[in-house]
Amino acid sequence: MSLKFKATVSRLTANFLRLLGMSELEPPESLPYLNFGRRLTFQSIPVDLYKDHLVRYISDRDGENTYMKCSLLCVEHYKCLQNVEHEFLVLYFTHWNSSSDTAVICADRSVEAAESSGLLTPSSSENVAQDLVTVIGGAMATDITQYLRFKFKSSKRISSLSFPSDCPSALQVSILLDLVNKQDTKYHIFRAQCYWYCDVVCRSLKRLFQGVEELHGPDTRGHLGLIPVVRTSEGDVDGVCNGYPIALQKAMEQVNQLQIQRAATRAQIWEEGSASAQLKINEQQCQIAERDHQLEERNRQLEEIRAEQQRQNTERDRENAERDHQFEEMRAEIERMRAQFAALKDTQ
Q1: What angle do CA 199, 205, 209 make, to 5 degrees?
Q2: For residues 209 and 258, what is the distance between their CA atoms, to the nearest angstrom?
């Protein structure tokens, strides 16, 4: 089943769900330079910067380079049908968590004419090649032909390259694209132009990763009309393939170093966070201890107040009892005196 057919089925399914009033599934998580979402993007970046961005990316989620987990599904080789019949590549990458979700990028070579003359001549060494990667969008949910029509007008697919056994990662592909650029950074009309660039990329990928090539009609790669313009030498492919292991090793050393730095930063943040948390715990414990001390002091003061009140109550009860006793004695004395007075009165 072709990728275009899958994209068509996906769009029809999405429209059917909308008609039924059902929401579509949430789009998969994307990366800064691999868009697995539903919306098309047109973000172009030179291949050397693209490679640097992919090498330096470390996920905040797991501290790993996620681009190493995105595999190249296939490469499609296109030719424009007008003017100089520009050629370009469309590359499909699978999502690291879902092989059914695919991101698409476009890679091609153009030219920036020398500022001195503004003219492009076959022998000029001042024409700087512009090898660009354009981040497009998720192939399963969007029609990439919209982007192809926007940038290249009309075009046709000439061939495709798939990788049934050894799929390179997005990081590995970025390294290879950068190596092809370094093979010849100048644009030559009859050698290192877009035909040459696409051919070297595909042949290098095919050799390094056991790619399987399929033609979709007459093989017009490297032709302007019926005229063959360029034929890539084996030396160009050898240069890329021979330089690839060294470039990959250098990139992996950089990735490992960045992972170590990220892990150290995380550990430091964790330690600082732990120390800060412990400091807060200690402060809270001191506050609790202070509150406990204050509570004990208030309880002690309350006990002293209660004891004083008890003492005062006891003293008051004693004084009242003593007054009552004196009162009884006085009343008894009065009664005795009344009795004596009554006895004296009777004797008279």
Answers
A1: 155
A2: 27
CA atoms within 13 A on the CB side of 33: 28
Alpha helix ranges (H) inside the chain:
3-19, 47-56, 145-152, 170-183, 194-209, 234-347
- Determine if residue 12 is left, alpha or beta; phi over 0 gives left, psi from -120 to 50 gives alpha, anything else beta: alpha
CA pair distance 93, 162, nearest whole angstrom: 11
Cα distance between residue 54 and residue 49, in whole Å: 9
Q: Under 8 Å CB-to-CB from 226, ≥6 apart: which residues?
A: none
As given in the structure block, the two tokens for residue 177 are: 């694209």
What are the helix (H) ranges across 20-168? 47-56, 145-152
Q: Are the CB atoms for 127 and 33 separated by under 8 Å?
A: no
Q: Would you list the DSSP string of 42-68?
A: -EEEEHHHHHHHHHH---TTTSS-GGG
DSSP H/E element including 103? strand 102-112
Confidence at residue 140, expressed as pLDDT on a 0 to 100 scale: 53
* CA atoms 186, 190, 192, 195: torsion sign: positive
Length of the chain: 348
Phi and psi angles of residue 173, each rounded to the nearest 5 degrees, phi first: -65, -40
pLDDT 10s digits, 178-217: 999 999 999 988 889 999 999 999 999 999 999 999 999 8
Q: Please state, in angstroms and rounded to a whole number, the distance separating the CA atoms of residues 156 and 78.
A: 6
Q: What is the pTM of this model?
A: 0.69
Spatial neighbors of 93 by CB under 8 A, at least 6 apart, are 34, 70, 71, 72, 73, 102, 103, 104, 105, 170, 173
Strands 102-112 and 223-224: unpaired
Mention every residue, 6+ apart, whose C-beta is less than 8 A from residue 237.
200, 203, 204, 207
User: Mean pLDDT, the chain, as a whole number?
Assistant: 83
The angle formed by the CA atoms of residues 294, 296 and 300, to the nearest 5 degrees, is: 115
Closest CA relative to residue 26, chosen from 144, 146, 141, 147: 141
Say if residues 134 and 44 touch (Cβ distance below 8 Å): yes
